[in-house]
Amino acid sequence: MGAPVQVVWLKRDLRVRDHRPLVKACEVAAHGGPPIVPLYVFEPSYWAVREHSAPQLAFIVECLDALREELRARGGDLFVRVGELPEVFEALHRERPFARLLSHRETGARVTFDRDQRVEAWCEARNVPWEESDQTGVVRRLASRDGWAARWTKRMRRPLLPAPEHVPVPGDVDGGRLPTADALGVTPRTLVERQPGGEREGLATLKSFLRVRGANYRADMSTPNAGWTGCSRLSPYLAFGAVSMKRVHQEAERRQQALKRKQRDGRLDDARWLASVASFRSRLSWHCHFMQKLEDEPALEFQNMNRAFDGLREDAHDEATRRARLEAWRAGRTGYPLVDACMRCVAATGWLNFRMRAMVVAFASYQLWLHWREPAVHLAGCFLDYEPGIHFSQMQMQSGTTGINALRIYSPIKQTRDNDPEGAFIHRWVPELRALPAAHLDKPWETPPLLQRQLGVVIGADYPAPLVEHASAYREAKQKMLAARRRLEARAASENVMRRHGSRKRPRRF
Questions:
Q1: What pLDDT band is residue 249 in, cutting at 50, 70 and 90?
Q2: Which of 180, 166, 200 is nearest to 67 (CA)?
Q3: Domain match, 431 and 463 both
Q4: Residue 6's beta-bridge partner residues?
Q5: What pLDDT, in 10s, does the model give residues 447-494?
């Protein structure tokens, strides 16, 4: 058994800058304390969950490659293991005893929640101190949402921590190798135009958004075409901690202050910047606001936040109908071009702008009347930026099962006219409709039959007829939801949801 080490357990914090556990360990080592093992563990049980995918794995591996370079430049290294926790810790502990374990707190799904509980029990049994640090605005064991926003702002304004100058590591511990998807039993899948992983990539993305790309952010975030460059595109870097939320917040705040000074001095060239940066900053707090919901109620990964809505959709269809609707939605074969384009795009690229994410979830929930859980699992595996707290909270909000949010039943017909009027997005992702003029893409089934044949786009043959009739499905879903919300038990449950999870920015009435 060798000399003790400090283990910095890396999870969703794949960076060297503004990394409190790493800084704390380096401070102790600099004063004669034990060397450091920055450790990332690839857990087969984690990768066996359907929400986790090969593109996410590839992004993480790129982040770790970049992190290893940063650590080596500081005299350190990255240590990698494949196996389950805490068994991996136990094996390393026998080789080099843990003086202490340091990590950031994580608000994750059931698989990581259970894992952390096992690690906590192992630490207690081995008398290993486990020191956890905050890295987002999420508060553990939050007693009340009152005052949460002020606490979030206070956290985000704490000084950023510089990268350690020197990271001393033991020279007799094997660094390990980064695994492939095959080695972890993950089905390989390559994305088109996937964002590259790594801290420097994340910081460059932040800079380009705040300085170059983000002027029209408020408008661009709604459209699938402009959103590709007009949105921040920071979500995967935040999801896996390649950039800290605190850094993003402070950079955005500095940019906003600089813009206001330019406005006062008459030097502001593009007035759109002010509103766009302000809108972006507000969304940063909403990021943690939604994560807090899962932190406070882990069960919402699986069950309705408002239990009065239990049974509303589960038995609405026979199994064959439910499966057919779900598979058509997954494959982008619903007969609604914008929905189908979005589903194909997110499967191919790992990204979709927020408005389109909301639309495809609403379509599954209302027009197809499917329970949110299976669509949530599918989309989680598609999204490169899958963040459990945000994902499941948003799925429930968009499907109407919180009871405290307005019903958002998007019309794919109107969204086509508003957000893809020229048909560029649909034509790219639904190639069988490329011959169809933009004027017919909102309702291709209404294209005159003769024109369909002339163009080689026959609805029902070359492209599916609508899976459901939008107007009637919309009316029926709205009637069912409003009736459910009016029930006394639903209203009472909504009050409880509001007390536990709701924003305190404005009063609510149910």
A1: very high
A2: 200
A3: yes
A4: 36, 100
A5: 999 999 999 999 999 999 999 999 999 999 999 999 999 998 989 999
What pTM was estimated for this model as a whole?
A: 0.96
Q: Are 427 and 492 in contact (CB under 8 A)?
A: no
If asked whether residues 343 and 324 sit together in one domain, one would say yes
- Sequence-separated (6 or more) residues with CB below 8 Å from residue 83: 41, 42, 43, 44, 91
Note whether 418 and 305 are same-domain residues. Answer: yes
Cα–Cα distance for residue pair 327/321, rounded to 1 Å: 10
Residue 226's domain comprises: 199-295
DSSP string of 38-51?
Answer: EEEEE-HHHHTSTT
Which pLDDT score, from 0 to 100, does residue 187 have?
94
At which of 261, 295, 329 does a domain end? 295
How far apart are alpha carbons 373 and 380 in whole angstroms?
Answer: 11
Q: Do 439 and 314 reside in the same domain of the chain?
A: yes
509 — pLDDT class (breaks 50, 70, 90)? very low
Cβ 420 vs Cβ 338: under 8 Å: yes
Strands 36-42 and 5-10 come out as parallel
Residues pairing with 131 in the sheet: 102
Provide the sign of the torsion angle of the four alpha carbons 269, 275, 278, 279, taken in this order. Answer: negative
Last residue of a domain, one of 295, 316, 335: 295
In order, the DSSP letters of 446-504 are: GS-HHHHHHHT--BTTTBPPPSS-HHHHHHHHHHHHHHHHHSHHHHHHHHHHHHHH--S
Whether 123 maps to a domain, the answer reads yes
Which element (helix H / strand E) includes 221? none
Instruction: Measure the CA–CA gap between 459 and 447, rounded to whole angstroms.
Output: 9
State the CATH number of the domain containing residue 442.
Answer: 1.10.579.10
Residue 181 domain flag: no
CB atoms within 10 A of CB 411: 19
Residue type, 234: L
In whole angstroms, what is the distance from residue 350 CA to residue 208 CA?
20
- Look up residue 341 and give its two tokens: 């384009």
- Tell me phi and psi for residue 314, to 5 degrees: -55, -40
Give the closest residue to 491 by CA, choosing from 466, 504, 510, 467.
510
Asked if residue 432 and residue 372 are part of one domain, the reply reads yes
Q: What is the CA radius of gyration of the chain?
A: 24
Q: For residue 172, what are its two tokens?
A: 């007799």
